[in-house]
Every structure is written in C-alpha cells, then in structure tokens.
C-alpha cells in the first residue's frame, strides 16, 4: 500500500496456567524510491498490560522504556517544545485499546515492530477466553497466529473461531490438544486472504477467539515456583444457591425511548431465567421512588407472570433520584433477612442501572457512596450498570467496589438488551457465599485478595502470593465457604515437586510466569483499591502499584512507555499510556491525539518540526486532556456560538451567528410535538459605533410546549412559567424542584436550570453573571440540549436541524492565518467549505471558566452548513 509492504506478521501467544504472554511481530519494507511512513497499529484487550515494544530499522533497535508517568510526561513535553511530536491514545472498541506508532524509513529499507503484552485470562461460563484482534489492512505474504497453551491440570476442551472466517478459511485453523498441551495455528495464504479472486483487499478484519477449559479432579489447584504460588479455586457439581435479587432501575426522562425499551426487553428475558427458589423485586427511580412489591417476592410462575405485566408498563419521565432508589432496595433486602422471608443460605444481590447523574434528593456522589456503603455494611453485593456515555462511571465504579461488586458500561447500541442479559447471566448462578482462602500468616507475604462474597458457577477464584522464605516448596490452604445445603470447609496442600513434574515441557513456559502472574494480579487489585481510597491510604496504594509496575515493566495507569525514534525522524518521542475508564483526550487533528472514549494508543505522527512550529507555535497544545469531557449534545452559548456534536465522527462542528441586539432567532421548532425554543439577542451596555454588527448574546429564551400549553420565559433575572392562564415566577436566587403539567424544572441557585418537557426534550439553561458595575458586559444565557431523540423528524431551527445525524469529510489540512489554528476543506451537505480548527466553550458544569471543546469552525454565519441562510431563522416574537 503506497509503496509500503508488510511482508510478515506473526502473533505468538503462550498461555501457561491462564497467564498469557503475547508477542506481535510485524515486518515491512519500503518498495518505493523515496522515504515512506509506515504505521504499526495493534488493538489489545483492555485487561492487558503492555510490557515491551521495540522497532528495528536496518539492524538498529530502538526500544521503548517504561517510566513513571510524571517523568515520562516531562520527557514528552520537552520533545513537544522542540517540535518533536508524539502522542497517545485511542479506544477502538468495547473490549480493546489501540497502540499505534509510525516511522519514516528510507527507500528499500526494512523495519520490524515488536509489541509484547500480558494478561490473566478469566473464566466465564465454564471457559477461559482469549481474543486477538486481526486487522493487517493489506494482504500479508507471511501471516500467522500461533497459540500454545500449557495447563498442568490438563486441557479438556479447546476451540478457536474468527468473526472473519469464511468457509474457505475454516480449514486453515489447525487445532490439537492432548494432556496438558494445546496448540492452535492460523496461517492463510495470500489468495485465501483476498476478499475475492482478484481483489487486493484483505478479508482478515475481526476477532480471533480462543476458548478452553481444564480438567478438575479437585476444587483446587496450587502451583509453586521459585518462591511464589498461585491458587486456582473452581469447585464443580455444587448445588445452586437461591438468590435474592433487587433490580434498581433508572426510569427518568433521559431513559425514554430506545433505552427504556431495551431495558424492558432484557428484563423480560431475565424473568424467563429466574429460578423458582429465587426471590426478587423491582425498584424504579425517577423524581419519585416506586416499587413493584413492598417485600421480596418468590419467583413462582404466578408472580413471574405478574412481574412481566409490571415490566411491560414501565415508562420513563422525570429526574434522577438514584440515592432514593438504592436506599429503598437496601431497606427491602434488610427487611427480608430480618423477618426470615428468604433462606439463610442464599445470595443477596443488587443490580442498579442508570444512564445519568443523580439530580433529585441527595445528588452529591460522595455522600451517596458513604450512605450506600453504610447501609449495605458488607452484607450484599452491588453491581452498577452505566447505560451510555452520560454516566459518572467513576462514581458507579467506586460505589460498586466499595460493596464487593463491580461496574459495567452498557453501550447504547442495537444489542444493549443482550449486554444487560449477558451481565445477568454472569451473576445468575451463585454456588457459594462468603468464600475465604486462608494461608499460614507466618509463611506468606504480599497476598492478593483472598476473601470473596460470592463464587459463581462457571467462574474461578485466583489467589497468588509470595513466600517469606523463597526456598519454601510446600503450602497448605484452609478453604471455607457457605453452600446451599451446608458449610464448605477443608484443607488442601501442594508441594513444589508436583508443579515441577507438571512443567517438564519447558518450551511452553515463558520466564517466571507465576511471579509475573502474582505481580499482574497485585497491581490490578491495588489500582482497584486506590479508586475508593483517600489521603495517606491512597498514597500508599499508589506507591506500591507504581513500584511493581516499574519493577515488572508493565504499562499501567501509573506508568508510561517512552518510544524514541531514530535521527531520520528527528528523534521524535512518544508515550504509550494505559487509559482509565471515563477519561477522554482531545486535541487538534493533524497532531497525535484524537478524541475517543476510554482509550489507549501511542500515535507517533511523522510531521517535520518546522511544520509543527509554523502551524502551532513552540507552545502548541498538542497534549490537551479533560478528565470529565461532555457527552454528545448541541448547544448555543456566548456571543452566540453554536456547537454541534457529530458522534459518529467523535468530533464537533461550530459556527457563530452575528446579528444585532433585539433580533429573535428560532433555535428549535417541532411542529409535531409543539415544542419550540426561541432566543432574543442583547448587546453590550454601550454600542461600538465602529462595528457594523454589534456583539450580541442571548438575554431571553422562550421555551414552549403547545401540547402541554406551557410557556417558559427565562432571563438572567427571572424564570416565569405560564400554564394556561396561571403564572409562576422564580428568581435565580431560588433553589427549586418543580413538577407541573408534565414539565419538570430544577433551578440550581445562580448556576443553571434543568428542564424536562414530558418525554419530549430536556434542556439546560446556563446563567452567566458578570460584575454588575462592568462598563460593557451584562448577564446572558446559554442553552444546551440534553435529550432530543423524542422530537420528530420535522424538527428544525438553528439547533433543531442538527438533531438528525449529519456527516462530513475533512480534507487538505493546511496552515491558516492563525498559526495555532489550521484550516481545512470540509465536504458537508454536498457543499465544499473552508473551515478552521479551533475551540468553543462548554459552560454547563463551569459557568465561569468553561471547558474548551475542539471543533471545526464554519465561517460566514454557518453558510453551507445550516439550511438556507441565517436570516431565515429570524422570527417576530419570543413565542
């Protein structure tokens, strides 16, 4: 492709006792007559840690070095200041993170990229699973995946499949297993890789998945090697415990439409799977809290039928009283146990689903965390499911971990119902509760987590540790737990000689694998504990995790890998970071960082330093991050500037409307639902006599719903609601939560108001206040749409026309008049426009300072982007 040939790509995986060591090697050659840029793109599992990367060009190797994140960042910033750019990070899917590096190589030169990463494979539904992302982007002469598995317990089943595997490719997957060893290879020829007989495109694009399980003659397997041990615990053939499950469901207005329908679809399928010995209930929270039943109900056929009727009539409206919903669920579980309504030996679980932020009742997330932890008091497990990108995922994760559960993001796609049902399936079959694996305290140091609230059928508990005496070669374990019929209690032991006998096939073993498994598991758990810790405890956990990450050369959220390119690439430096859930990175296209959710990637773009300096200046904002970026929305704020999110591009378009004070602009008009929003412009206190168009801002908003016969007038002084002939007024000094005539209004004193109009639309109006004695400026308003999918396809207006998907293409990025803002050509609505890369402010969460949102700016009042011209949107009155 473009003179660059990837002539070899090999993915070599060695799995020993569930711990996978993966090496991806890619070799390319420049077949052209001039220097070319070659890219190495790899997608890895989010659960993996990168341990090594190197590139070898004409026999010279350039290794990556793993450093503390702060030290790496300083090195990176020095490189940026010299115009030697590098970059970071991208999410490429629900389960993957993407590592990408590029380098210029001379004509006829060769380059070899090698990336190593490790992960502990987890057991779910009775199998261990490892997936490998396959996407070479061109035909590769020598392409091979090779997987070697070594399990001392013996392998009972082994399978491999690929989402891209055609009938012609099926026979190219070779699979063998016998005793302790398993082998899989996939080596398609060039012709087998083609999408058709004479095509140059590759069919290799998708997931290659390996699944296997091991033989279990006892519940335990202990392995001891060189002063470290690992204990695998997965008993089989146990009677299932009955479970007591509370579903706490967000039914606020933001869940309306597809989200609530998918939730109901999943719940109906879950009701089909609930066992007759189980007890259950539903708690719904919006502005109010409602329950299906006042107590836990046994899952008899009659009760399940009644529950299905209840689920079918669930609807969404109002705000989000998350705290109230959780507390009601906990109260019902407490009462069920106190009154002996449920079996003593049973598993109690709370599954909470939300798509937004708490904004009614107690809305401070730290207060909610403390209250929930105190109320649960270690008795039940809390699982938090975050629907979509509008949730505070960090809050959900901390609260779940505090209560022996976990958080999971539910992606708002067509399969959201299957995601919900899939999560339930993981926790639907508890076999044991209160499991403890106890080891002699005087023999073991640095033990990973060894007590577990639940053990689920088809899963596995893994504990690892380090011996005080590195020469110790035996270990006894005391195992305790509560089963359906009686307590589980026994002692097991293992000697190192048994492990040594099992590990005679040394070619399957990589390094000190048990020690690395212990380090991986310890770091993973320290990082989890760190999420909920504060003060000195958090500092200690951070220090421990950092020390281990550096010692074992893992790229974790506390470390970074610095990659330095050869002299021909101006010694550019790049950093590979491990991202954390819910943190996004923004920057200008043409540099190295792109916007995406939850991501990991190093993007080393080979742009000449002189061009970078010319384009962005010596202090270019190449590395620009926001810890809490906005979710997708449309808005108008400031003087006035419009921001239009384009989710499929993970980008935004912006434009200004320049009109004189006194003009009223139509922002949203839906003739079907009767919802309209108009805004009246105000100017500065003193007009600028030299300006043809005066500075203007929105000083008054009129929001109406004809179906509800409601009109809301908002100014920087007052909020007035007119319902028929009745009028109600508030000032911005009030703190108000009001439900009236299908409308829900929350005024956050001197900050903003949140408005929901039935299930039709949700808005935030932001108040901007300036110094009253300011000689020029005066208070003004901003408008943000949070929910618009219930408005009809006929919705129009300066904002409303963008509630439907819009697509665009960016071409020919080049320097513009402002050295920090490149220009480009945009193709949109069959128009070719010159646009400029820049920022606009999002003031929803911080009305004073705002957050910079990168966007492509369309000039001339949005000409070519908006339908018609901007004067078409001038209306005669606010309503």
From TrEMBL:
Localization per Swiss-Prot or TrEMBL: Secreted
Keyword Signal: yes
Function according to Swiss-Prot or TrEMBL: May act as a carrier of hyaluronan in serum or as a binding protein between hyaluronan and other matrix protein, including those on cell surfaces in tissues to regulate the localization, synthesis and degradation of hyaluronan which are essential to cells undergoing biological processes.
Entry GO terms, CC: extracellular region
Domain VIT: start-end pairs: 1-119
InterPro entries documented for this protein: ITI_HC_C, ITIH, VIT, VWF_A, vWFA_dom_sf
Gene3D superfamilies recorded: von Willebrand factor, type A domain
Pfam family, one: VWA
A biological process term (GO) from this entry: hyaluronan metabolic process
Keyword terms, alphabetized: Glycoprotein, Protease inhibitor, Proteoglycan, Secreted, Serine protease inhibitor, Signal
One GO MF term: serine-type endopeptidase inhibitor activity
Domain of life: Eukaryota
Domain VWFA, residue spans: 244-427
Name of the protein described by the UniProt record: Inter-alpha-trypsin inhibitor heavy chain H3
Family per record: Belongs to the ITIH family.
């Amino acid at each position: 492709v473009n003179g660059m040939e990837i002539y070899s790509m090999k993915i070599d995986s060695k799995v020993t006792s569930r711990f996978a060591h993966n090496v991806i090697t890619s070799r390319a050659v420049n077949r052209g007559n001039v220097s070319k840029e070659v890219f190495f793109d790899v997608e890895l599992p989010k659960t993996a840690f990168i341990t090594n990367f190197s590139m070898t060009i004409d026999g010279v190797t350039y290794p990556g070095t793993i450093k503390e994140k702060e030290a790496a960042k300083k090195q990176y910033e020095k490189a940026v200041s010299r115009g030697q750019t590098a970059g970071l990070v991208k999410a490429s899917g629900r389960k993957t993170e993407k590592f990408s590096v590029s380098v210029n190589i001379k004509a006829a030169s060769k380059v070899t990229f090698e990336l190593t990463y490790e992960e502990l494979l987890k057991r779910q539904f009775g199998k261990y699973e490892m997936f490998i992302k396959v996407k070479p982007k061109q035909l590769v002469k020598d392409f091979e995946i090779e997987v070697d598995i070594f399990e001392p317990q013996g392998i009972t089943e082994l399978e491999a499949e690929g989402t891209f595997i055609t009938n012609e490719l099926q026979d190219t997957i070779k699979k063998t297993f016998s005793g302790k060893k398993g082998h899989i290879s996939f080596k398609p020829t060039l012709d087998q890789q083609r999408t058709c007989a004479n095509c140059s495109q590759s069919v290799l694009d998708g997931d290659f998945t390996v699944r296997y399980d091991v033989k279990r003659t006892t519940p335990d397997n202990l392995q001891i090697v060189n002063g470290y041990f690992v204990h695998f615990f997965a008993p089989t053939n146990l009677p299932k415990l009955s479970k007591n499950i509370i579903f706490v469901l967000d039914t606020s207005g933001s869940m309306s439409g597809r989200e609530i329908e998918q939730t109901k679809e999943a719940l109906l399928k879950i009701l089909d799977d609930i066992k007759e010995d189980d007890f259950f209930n539903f708690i719904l929270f919006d502005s109010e809290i409602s329950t299906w039943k006042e107590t836990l109900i046994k899952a008899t056929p009659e009760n399940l039928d009644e529950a299905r009727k209840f689920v079918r009539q669930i609807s969404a409206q109002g705000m989000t009283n998350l705290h109230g919903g959780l507390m009601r669920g906990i109260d019902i579980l407490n009462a069920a146990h106190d009154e002996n309504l449920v079996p003593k030996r049973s598993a109690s679980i709370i599954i909470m689903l939300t798509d937004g932020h708490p904004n009614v009742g107690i809305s401070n997330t730290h207060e909610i965390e403390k209250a929930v932890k105190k109320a649960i008091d270690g008795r039940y497990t809390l699982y938090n499911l975050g629907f979509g990108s509008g949730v505070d995922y960090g809050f959900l994760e901390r609260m779940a971990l505090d209560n022996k559960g976990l958080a999971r993001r539910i992606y708002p796609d067509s399969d959201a119902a299957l995601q919900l049902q899939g999560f339930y399936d993981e926790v639907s079959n508890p076999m044991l509760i209160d499991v403890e694996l106890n080891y002699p305290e005087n023999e073991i140091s640095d033990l990973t987590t060894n007590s577990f609230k639940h053990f689920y059928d088809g899963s596995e508990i893994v504990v690892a540790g380090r011996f005080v005496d590195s020469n110790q070669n035996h270990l006894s374990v005391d195992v305790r737990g509560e089963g359906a019929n009686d307590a589980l209690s026994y002692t097991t032991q293992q000697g190192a000689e048994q492990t040594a006998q099992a590990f005679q096939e040394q070619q399957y073993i990589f390094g000190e694998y048990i020690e690395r498994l212990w380090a991986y598991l310890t770091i993973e758990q320290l990082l989890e504990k760190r999420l909920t810790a504060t003060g000195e405890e958090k500092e200690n956990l951070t220090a421990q995790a950092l020390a281990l990450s550096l010692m074992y050369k893992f790229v974790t959220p506390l470390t970074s890998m610095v990659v330095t390119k050869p002299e021909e690439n101006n010694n550019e430096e790049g950093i590979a970071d491990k991202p954390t859930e819910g943190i996004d990175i923004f920057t200008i296209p043409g540099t190295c960082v792109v916007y995406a959710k939850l991501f990991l990637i190093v993007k080393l773009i080979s742009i000449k330093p002189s061009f970078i300096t010319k384009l962005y200046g010596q202090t270019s904002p190449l590395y620009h991050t926001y810890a809490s970026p906005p979710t997708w929305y449309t808005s108008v704020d400031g003087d006035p500037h419009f921001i239009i999110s384009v989710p499929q591009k993970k980008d935004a378009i912006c434009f200004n409307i320049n009109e004189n004070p006194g003009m009223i602009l139509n922002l949203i008009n839906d003739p079907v639902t009767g919802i309209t929003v108009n805004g009246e412009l105000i100017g500065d206190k003193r007009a600028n006599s030299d300006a043809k168009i005066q500075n203007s801002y929105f000083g008054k908003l009129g929001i109406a719903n004809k179906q509800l016969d409601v009109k809301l007038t908002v100014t920087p002084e007052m909020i007035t609601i007119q319902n028929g002939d009745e009028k109600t007024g508030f000032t911005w000094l009030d703190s108000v939560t009001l439900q009236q005539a299908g409308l829900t209004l929350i005024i956050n004193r001197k900050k903003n108001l949140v408005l929901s109009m039935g299930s039709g639309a949700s808005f935030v109006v932001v108040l901007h206040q300036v110094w009253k004695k300011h000689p020029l400026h005066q208070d003004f308003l901003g408008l943000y749409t949070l929910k618009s999918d219930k408005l009809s396809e006929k919705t129009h207006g300066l904002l409303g026309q963008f509630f439907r998907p819009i697509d665009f293409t960016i071409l020919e990025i080049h320097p513009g008049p402002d050295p920090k803002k490149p220009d480009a050509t945009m193709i949109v609505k069959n128009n070719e426009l010159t646009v400029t890369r820049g920022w606009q402010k999002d003031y929803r969460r911080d009305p004073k300072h705002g957050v910079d949102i990168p966007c492509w700016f369309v000039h001339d009042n949005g000409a070519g982007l908006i339908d018609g011209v901007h004067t078409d949107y001038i209306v005669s009155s606010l309503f």
